[in-house]
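Hi there. Long-time user, first ticket. I'm pasting a complex I've been working with (about 167 residues overall). I'd like to know whether the download I got is complete or cut off, because the file seemed smaller than I expected. Thanks.
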Amino acid sequence: MIDDPVLVFSVDVAMADAPREAQRLTEWLVASGWVTASLAPGPRAFATGTVTEKQGGSVEVIAEPTLNMEGADMESPLCPYCETQVDIFALTDEISDDTPYPVVRCEGCGRGVAYLDWPGTSHPIMSNLTLALDAWMIPSDDTTPSSLVSEIRAEMGGRWLQMWTHF
Ligand SMILES: [Zn+2]
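Hi, the file is complete. Here it is re-exported in full:
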């Protein structure tokens, strides 16, 4: 049973642009057959095996500030310079609506590291436009040309991250 959502979100959409970008994303998802007009999985989702007939699936387009989290037992990331593990709260305490991606100082080497330069998605990451895919099978190898995530990146532009959640 796969019921944990996959989150696919932009880190480049400003809040002021989120409703318009959400509409553009939704229209493209429908036009390309990934979802139906009622936001149920579309023919392309079934044809690619991303959603199964037995499992079903749902889609939610969220155009508001969202703190995306993997869930329980998150491991905070290692400094990209010295591999010291940052305290997860040192990261999250710096986040605000005005500063969604703060510079966080590494306790190991003292460098200020931009929020999105902390590797991986094991730490919470803010977004203003998020696609929550419940019971969809999105391969973690998102370099596969046919994958939904790759197509969203190509269609929408900017940086899109993918996160599995498991609460
Ligand atoms: Zn460091």
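A couple of notes from our side: The two ends are 14 Å apart (CA to CA). The beta strands are 5-10, 58-62, 66-68, 103-105, 112-114, 125-127, 129-134, 160-164.
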